[in-house]
Design goal:
The chain is α+β, with helices and mostly antiparallel strands. Helices cover 41% and strands 18% of the residues. It has helices at residues 6-17, 24-33, 40-52, 95-105, 121-126; strands spanning 57-61, 65-69, 76-80, 86-89, 115-118. Helix 1 (6-17) packs across helix 3 and helix 2 crosses helix 3. The N and C termini lie far apart (50 Å). Fe cation binds at residues 95, 112.
């Protein structure tokens, strides 16, 4: 198991305070801008540990690499094709889909992630 870490606590507190999804570079820049001296390697290392501990979730952004989400419960995401943000979708998680996939493949499916692409509400309002 992992020992407690001051840097990890700082990163977790940062994650709890933000809205949306952030990159490791954004966390690094924001923490350093606020006077917390931390290296980018330390940010990445601790984000990976927080993911291993199921405290945060790593999401593959189609363009920017990985982003991090403070919400670990299963949920779906929208990638906005206009502004490139990733947003949580407020729709129920389909547990039955895991069972359907298990039956279709003969494999034990325990969870799934889904990212849909479209246009977010903010971008729709701008049109």
């Amino acid at each position: 198991m992992y020992k407690s870490s001051k840097q990890r606590d700082l990163i977790m507190n940062y994650m709890k305070q933000i809205n949306g999804h952030v990159t490791a570079e954004q966390i690094f820049n924001d923490l350093n801008a606020n006077g917390t001296k931390i290296s980018l390697a330390t940010v990445y290392r601790n984000l990976n540990i927080l993911c291993d501990l199921h405290e945060i979730k790593k999401i593959a952004h189609p363009i920017e690499g990985y982003q991090y989400d403070k919400t670990c419960k299963p949920h779906y995401h929208l990638h906005c094709i206009k502004c490139d943000r990733i947003l949580d979708l407020d729709i129920p998680y389909k547990e039955d889909f895991n069972k359907e996939m298990s039956e279709a493949t003969g494999l034990p499916i325990t969870t799934h992630d889904m990212m849909v692409e479209g246009i977010c509400e903010d971008c729709l309002k701008k049109q």
